[in-house]
Structures are given as C-alpha cells and as structure tokens.
Amino acid sequence: MRPHDMGTLFDEVAARGTHTTVHLDRPFDILPAGYGPGVDFTVPQLAGLVREAAGWLYEAGARRGERVAVVKRNHYDYALLACAAVRIGAVPALLSGHLPDDVLEVLLKRLDPAVLVTDRVPPVGLARRVLSLGPPVPGALTLDDVRGARVPAPRRRHDDEPLVVNHTSGTTGVPKLVVHTTRTIVHRLARFEAVRWPVIGVRRDDVVANAGSYAHGRAFCWTASVFCLAPRKVVLLSDPGSAAPVLARHRPTVLEALPSAYVRWQPLTTRPDHPFREVRLFVSTFDAMHPPAIRAMLHASRRRRPLWMQGWGQTETGPLTFRFLTRRALDRSPDARDLGRPVPGRTRLRVVDPVTLTPVPRGHSGLVLARTAARCAGYVGEQDRWHAKTSGPWWNTGDLGVLTRGGSVRLLDREVDAVPGLSCLRVEDLVEDRLPEVVECVVLGTPGRPPIPVLVTSGPLDPAAWRQAVADLPPMADPHLMAWDDVPRTATGKVRRLDLLTRLAGTAETHGSGRWT
C-alpha cells in the first residue's frame, strides 16, 4: 500500500486487516481520562478517533479550504488532528506548544484560522472559534461541546492544493509557516519511504519507535509511510524522559528520535537493562549528530551490524541527503558533519559563492543550494521571503558547506551563525569528542570579540583539561557552563542560538548576513 489521502489513511490501513498495535507513553490529550484504550490502540481504533475528531472540527466551524490551527503539548494526537482536518477538506496548521506567546500571536495572525485547537489560553481574537483542550476559556468550546457530532463524508482535494502547514524550527527568530501539498509531502516524500527497502525498510516484524516533535512536518510524512508498511508495533513517545519504562516493555528494532533525545539517552546506554539492545536501525533527522551519541547508541545494540541513518534536510524540502554509519565506519571516519550524498534521482545539490551566488568548485565552501520536486509551495504571509530563497528550481538552504569530490556534503555552519576562520559545528564536535563530561557544546560568534563556547556538562569541568582540549583550535573566550534546561531551545531540541547569544553577549549581531534564514 502507498499513501495517497491523509484524511482516510488510517481507514485504508485498517481495511487491509493490519496487525499493527500502537503504544503510547501517556494517554492522548484529546481523550477524556479513563477512555477505554488508554495507552494501547489498534489501527481501527485510531481510524475511529480520526473520524470522531473530524466531526468535532466540523461542528466547531471548520470548512473546506479553511485553516485549523493546533497548538498543544507534544504528543502524537497532533497527527490525528491533522488527518481529521484533512478529512473534512480543511488545512491543518500545526504549531508547537513550545512557542512563546508573542511568537504564537504572530503566527496565528498570519494563519487567520477558522478553528484553533489548544490547551493554553490563546490571544483573543486570532481565531473564529477556539476548541479548548485545557482549562475553560471564556467564549471557547470544549471537547464535551462537540463530542458525538456527525462525521461528515471525506472531502478530496487537488494534489497541488495546500494540504498541511508546519513551521520551521525557529532557531534564528520567528519560525516560517511552510505550506506543503499532497504532491510535495505525500507523493514525493512519504511514498518514497513507504517501500520495503533492503536493510533500511520497515519490516512486518519490526517494533518501530518514535520520539519526535509531532507538530513538525517529519511526523506527518512519517505517519503516512510507517503505517502503510504495517510493522508489528508502533511506539510513540511524547517526552524522551519517558523512554526507559516504555521501551523496556516494547523493545524497538527501529528507533527514530530527535538528536537532542539521543543525547539525553546516552546515560541509559551504560545501564545493564537499557532498552536499546534490539535496535537494528537508528534514525536521526532535523540536525546533525555529534559523534559521542551515535557511538554510544551503536555500541549499545546487541545486533551484529546495527546501522545509523542520518538524514539532512529542511521543513521546506524534506530529506536532501542520507548518510549511513556502522560502528566500524564511525571509528574510521568520525566526522558527523559529513552528511552523505544527495538522494539518488530525487535531489541535486550545488554550492555557490555567498556574495555572487555563482557556483564554486568541488571542495570549496559556500552556500548550499538544493533542487528537489518536494520543495514546499510557499510561506504563509511571507511569500516574498519564499521567493527570495528560490532561484528557478534551486532552493537556498541558508547553510554553508562543502560539496566534496566524492559527492558528499560536509556541513560547516548556518550562514547566519558563521564565524570567520572556523566552523562552529566542527569545534563543537571536537570538544564533545575530547571531553566526555561535555554533554553539549555550542559555539557562538559576534563581531569584535572571540567566539563564546557554551558547555552543558555532566559534572565539574577541569580547567586544565579544557585548555588541553582546545589548544590546537582557534582562540575562544572562556567557556560558559549552563544546565541543559537553561539553554533556550526549540521544540526539536535545537539551541536558539541568537537568543543565547543575546543573553550572554547582550547583542544578536552575528558575522553572517542572515539573508536566507
């Protein structure tokens, strides 16, 4: 089976008699306490829940072509609400619950949603109707007001009409609202994944676990492909902190998680009862991984040849490159900033001079441009910004990198974060590799002062060990030590570098232009 209509996806999978069971780390936020299935579901039960939710949204006033905004705590019911909105012909716009109020207000003004589904108290007047999942909100509907509503028949849309809106990570300011169509995100991305590829494809006996940010486009695409492939179990984690007991009950054989989740799970790999023993395939997306976390996970698996698949791409494009790592390959080539090669027959890359935008030779650094049929259709409320990042069929990723003679991409930095004379990302990798007590290193640059290293550590930092670790690196300021939770982050765990720079240096000015953020 290959995905086509996200509004009836679960119905179609259920009709095929799938054996897949679904297991959660906590009950869905859209269901009342004590609801029958609790944390264990069948696909027919999920299909029924999507149909019910479609009735709720229609009763709340959402109609064909209108936007339904969702902003709530992270959980997989984001995907169910998205499918419900698609089913009635509406366009789901999924906004992370991590967004601060001022940013949320900006995005809701751009969206102008017919219905806002939320578990927080929203700004007044930014949606025609509010469907509250949390405390009572004056003038808002509750789920009790719409439960039992008539379920309208599914509405189909043209493949090039807007299907879903997701926002970018927002590491450099207010996130963009990215519009994808059925053609770009389902036909070009999900269908490619919904194939039982050798080694990396999902098998019928797999236990597939995901610890993602379900408001983001990756979760929508992942839903379409994984359920069509019908693994034995699907395990969905809303919080990486809940992984140990849930994964102990449902030991994954395929595990996809945010880079920040893998970093948080590193200490678990040293326990004799850790839950990663059966994993044959680890998948990471959203951001490049630092080598220590990859190494810890691969060595934690008891499989003979566990594989790490790292995807690099953007919300606007989907995956652009893949890189595969084994234990041996990681020991031989620990450069995690080598992001692999473009997806054959699906993506092309070129590197251009940041000033002239003319191509540079292989092996020279510059801005990375991508060409893919999965490119998004635009930005809500910022179409001029979208056009500024396009050059015919080419898309400006805003990343600085090198296209090697072997055809792989080595990522240096985001253009806005770049520091002359060094790659912040490479320095971060080296520091984390050389100092095991450094859980995370972030290097920030602003004109007129040396780069600022920010360290999250698992214990005290020996000043002598620090000096030795950075002796052969470009000069930097003394390190700032911070707790993990004190570092400003996006919903996907990425560091909001400009916010952190402003906090530490009193300015958000960087060496980069920021033209393509």
Automatic annotation (TrEMBL):
One of its GO terms (molecular function) is ligase activity. InterPro entries: AMP-binding_CS, AMP-dep_synth/lig_dom, ANL_N_sf, ATP-dep_AMP-bd_enzyme. Gene3D superfamilies: N-terminal domain of ligase-like (3.40.50.12780). Residues 36-379 form the AMP-dependent synthetase/ligase domain. Keywords: Ligase. PANTHER family: LONG-CHAIN-FATTY-ACID--COA LIGASE, NONRIBOSOMAL PEPTIDE SYNTHASE PES1 (EUROFUNG)-RELATED. This is Acyl-coenzyme A synthetase/AMP-(Fatty) acid ligase. It comes from Saccharothrix texasensis.
